[in-house]
Design goal:
170 residues, alpha+beta, disordered C terminus, single chain, NADH Oxidase, four-stranded antiparallel sheet, globular
Length: 170
């Protein structure tokens, strides 16, 4: 991505309140699929933009963030699927005894890299992705990934640039 995308990411003056157009979230999703590790990765990204979803998410934020969640345009929850990570190791060497610790470390690193890609890709489609540090990862897991082996590793608030407000697509 160009240096302009990185510079734009730091320009908070052009951030505005308002919904993130669904088409823009689709474009962000499409960009994340271009990541070299996307096809063979245990990373899972979930976009939360509905009022009901943001209310569910808010319960798992620190008090200072909790009050801001309902008014936020959208969120991206990034995690990794442990069982998929182990299956990748087994598919690479079916006779191997899977090293679960290695699978977890690899999946965590991939999820961290995907979080970085998410922030840059968001800038490329006109969104700002602000990392939220204080959240209950286990709570988000049970709320949004119940019945799976997905572990939540990061959370970003997605806010559109002023030029996207009222746009149907980017």
């Amino acid at each position: 991505m160009s240096a302009q995308v990185v510079r734009l990411r730091r320009d908070i003056a052009s951030v505005a309140a308002g919904p993130v157009p669904r088409a823009v979230l689709g474009q962000l999703h499409d960009l994340l699929q271009l990541d070299p590790i996307a096809g063979a990765s245990a990373v899972r990204t979930l976009f939360v933009a509905s009022d009901a979803g943001k209310a569910r998410l808010a319960r798992h934020l620190a008090p200072g963030e909790r009050d801001l969640a309902p008014g936020a345009p959208a969120f991206a929850i990034v995690g990794f699927d442990f069982l998929f990570a182990v299956s990748l190791i087994l598919s690479a060497s079916p006779m191997a005894n899977p090293d679960c610790a290695l699978a977890v470390r690899t999946a965590q690193r991939s999820a961290a890299l995907q979080g970085d890609t998410l922030r840059l890709a968001a800038a490329a489609v006109g969104l700002r992705a602000a990392t939220i540090a204080n959240f209950d990862a286990a709570g988000l897991r049970s709320e949004f990934f119940a019945g799976t082996e997905v572990t939540v590793v990061s959370l970003c608030r997605l806010t559109p640039e002023a030029s996207l407000i009222g746009a149907s697509a980017f």
